[in-house]
Write a structure and sequence with these properties.
34% helix; ten-stranded mixed sheet; 8 helices; 20% strand
Length: 194
């Protein structure tokens, strides 16, 4: 079985994996499985009050997990796939642990062929959070993974160095950028014009 196949199987069985995106390496697990999401928090040492985004292979698949307004759909059609996280109202299937109990969830459609294939093969949304210990820098090369992260995951999908600039996190409904990253100026322009 290929590394991709092993990673998809690991996600379906509640384990975590490391995968490349166009921004940084991500830590992926079944985003709809509260126990798997809890494991991601443990691996990162992440504060449970900080929500985690989910990644899907396409905008239409994202709409299965969120209730998006027309403006949010227009934004997604323009900027996804890409290095952007869009905050949308979650559907009931998205567990509280992922959103830290909030009513919105971050949606990512990564613009990286291996990440997209993993999303497709896993057949479930996967967590989209950087593959690092909370408080330490994001990882752009698999060789730089913290040993504790590497040991805690079932598979590391290696794809050399990633783009490095983290995704821009946008709340389209409020017209606000929560974290400036890739394409932030272009996104700001779009929000002002729409």
């Amino acid at each position: 079985m290929s590394d991709l196949g092993r990673a998809a199987t690991a996600i379906r069985t509640g384990e975590a994996v490391v995968y490349p995106t166009e921004t940084v390496y991500g830590l992926g697990a079944d985003a709809l499985d509260p126990d798997a999401v809890e494991r991601v928090f443990e691996i990162k040492g992440r504060d449970r009050s900080k929500p985690i985004s989910l990644a899907v292979p396409s905008v239409p698949s994202a709409l299965e997990y969120v209730r998006a307004s027309d403006r949010e759909r227009q934004f997604m059609a323009r900027f996804l796939p890409g290095p952007v996280t869009v905050l949308c109202r979650r559907r009931e299937v998205v567990p509280d642990v992922l959103t830290a109990g909030g009513d919105r969830v971050g949606i990512r459609v990564p613009d990286h062929p291996l990440a997209l294939r993993l999303c497709e093969r896993a057949a479930t949304p996967i967590t989209a959070t950087s593959a690092n210990v909370s408080g330490s820098g994001s990882v752009r090369h698999h060789a730089d993974l913290d040993p504790s992260v590497r040991e805690a995951v079932a598979v590391v999908l290696e794809a050399g160095e990633t783009g490095g600039t983290e995704s821009t996190v946008v709340d389209v409904s409020a017209g606000t950028i929560h974290r400036r990253g890739a394409h932030a100026d272009e996104i700001e322009g779009w929000l002002g014009a729409h």
